[in-house]
Structures are given as structure tokens and as C-alpha cells.
Amino acid sequence: MQAASGRDAPDRCPGAVQVHAAADGGLARVRLPGGRLGRDALAVLRAAAIDLGDPDLELTSRGNVQVRALRPGAELDLAARLTGAGLLPSATHERVRNLVASPLSGRDGRGALDVRPVVAAFDAGLCADAALAALPGRFLVTLDDGRGDVTPLGGDVGLYGDRLTLAGTPATAPAAGDPAALLLRATRAFLAERAEQGGTAWRLAELTDGPARVAARLGASLDEDARPSGGGGSAAGWTSQAGGLAAITAVVPLGRLTPAHAAALLDAAPEEIIVTPWRTVVVPDVPVEEAGRVETLLTAAGLVTDPASRWAGVTACAGRPGCAKALADVRADARAAVAAGTTPAGSPVHWVGCERRCGAPKGRHVEMLATADGYRSTAA
């Protein structure tokens, strides 16, 4: 039996309206359900970061975007800009719109289900239900089209192909013609079980026997043997799509999307980009004859499209000076290690400034932990 979490305070996940006071100023997190970001919305985010705070946009491990170093009162201007761009459809629900989806779903011929319509339907249903605004800001929905890329992220509820998942474990459930409706039912069941257990847990897995009890509320049961063994997003480079199109995936070094990066993406993207949980961006629907030009444009701006690059899999927390708890400028140290060729190629490596280990990737990786005596390298 799993013990319930002893959380003694509500989560304080930042939002675009509820801004976190970081060491370098206000920190706003903008949710991008499924990671999808239209060209016009990207232009708005780029301009907002330049005008209101740190000009670099920060990509998160849930495929969202953060604006850092906001000046006092700038969050009001930011919220107005986001609302005009369609990025803030609900001020009451904006912190709980954490939806991660298979980035190439419906485009590359893989997967059992195109989850893009499910993302839109679930997000609309979430925002329309006033009760769901009570979800913790850490609550995560994973919409995996069956390839096994985002289910290992351990979403509280989700899909794995046409199957419901609870805390990352597939469940046998009554047939449901509307997967978004099933996910909304599961989300409400989480809230009901959470309330019964004291209402303090942030995640489904923190509840005593949470996945099994939520499954029972839905008339379902867990199927541990069906848990996918995959994980990780598409590698940097080209992916073929149907109809003579291609998707180009690029690593954003340390998840810092600079104004130059964003400008290149605006020039490259036909309609939208996709922000992934692995701090990469995907430019989909590029005509094959244009793919070489697009890749050159992205690499010239400093994005990385070579899957063999040492930047692949290298991530870091904010570190100094943005975080008061950090013991080092981990991003500068990570950049120096990549430049010197001392970061293991092909292995996920996460640099962290303190024991909180913010932004750590799921699954096996090498951790570079800053201490008072330098870095400690361990397999996590």
C-alpha cells in the first residue's frame, strides 16, 4: 500500500497570472497544451519577453514556456498580451492546463491515435468545468498516441493509444467513444479521491493506493504489464511526413529560446511549432524541398539539428543568478562542459544547482549536482 503524501501547503506552481517571485524578478509560466504554438502566438511571446523581462524564453520539462525577470507590475501587461494571442483562455484554469502530447502525433504515420483533437477537446472541457480549477498546479495529463514517448513522464491521467493511463499505468476501462470525456471523468475521480484523503496531495501517485482507487471509481482496473518501455522524444533532425512534408526537430540548448532562435522559427514554420518536454522544438509540415533551407536557417540561429551533437540530452535548472537557492551558475558551467567536450555524448545529463533537482528528466540520466565543494556526478 502506498502512503499518502503529507503536503502541508498548496502547490505554488507559477502561472501567467499568478507569477512567482524569483531571484531575478517575476517568473510567469505559460501553458501550451500539447506543446502547440502558432506563429502569431510565438511572435507575441517573443516580443513580450524582450519588452517585459529576460529576452530569452525558457522551455520547461512539461512542454510549457516561461518568461523570467519580469519587472514589478509587468504581469498585467503580459496577461493582456497572452489573452489577445489566445494563450490565456481561462484565468481561473490557466495553472492546471498541463497537457503533454506525442509531438508528431498524426503526422509521421506512427501511433494508434491522432491525439491532437483530444488535446483540444480535453482543454476545452477542462476550462468549461469550474470545479476543475481546484486541480493542483502539478497535475499532469499525458496524451500518448501509442508510441510510448510521453507515457513514461508519469502523467496523473492520460492516454496510451486508446487506453486510459493512471499515474503512467495503463488501465482496462469501459469502452468510451470519446477519449476526452473519459479523461475528464478520470480527472474528476482524482479530485474526489483527493478530497476523501484530505485534499492535500499534489499528484495521483501521492494518494494512498491512488491509481487503483481512481480506477475503481471509473469501473476500471490497472494493467501493470502493459506499461510501455519506451521514452524520450524524437531525435534532432528530419522526420518524414505524408504528402511530401517533413518535420524538423531542433534542440534548444539548455532550454533557452533566444530572440534569434524565435526569429528563425518564425521564418521557418509554415503555421506552428511544437514545444516538447525534452526542451526541443519541432517545425512540422515543411515541404521536403524546403527542409534543407529550414534546417540551415535554424542551425545558423544557434539551434541544434544534429542528433549526434553533445547538446542532445543536456539540460539544466535555472541556477544562479535566477534562483536564490542555487550554489552555482549551472547553465554557464554546462555550456563550458559542452564546449570542452567533457559532457558524455548520447547520455541525458542534467545540471542542478541544489538538492531540489528542479527540472530533472524522467528516466535514467547523469546528474551534475552543484555542492559547496564543486559538482558531484551521479547516475540518477
TrEMBL record:
A GO MF term: 4 iron, 4 sulfur cluster binding
Domain Nitrite/Sulfite reductase ferredoxin-like: residue ranges: 27-82, 241-300
InterPro entries: NIR_SIR_4Fe-4S, NiRdtase/SiRdtase_haem-b_fer, Nit/Sulf_reduc_fer-like_dom_sf, NO2/SO3_Rdtase_4Fe4S_sf
Entry-linked Pfam families: NIR_SIR_ferr
Gene3D superfamilies: Sulfite Reductase Hemoprotein, domain 1, Sulfite Reductase Hemoprotein,Domain 2
Presence of the UniProt keyword Lyase in the record: no
UniProt keyword list: 4Fe-4S, Heme, Iron, Iron-sulfur, Metal-binding, Oxidoreductase
Chain segments annotated as coiled-coil in the UniProt record: none
The protein, known as: Precorrin-3B synthase
Species assigned in the record: Dactylosporangium aurantiacum
Taxonomy of the source species: Bacteria, Bacillati, Actinomycetota, Actinomycetes, Micromonosporales
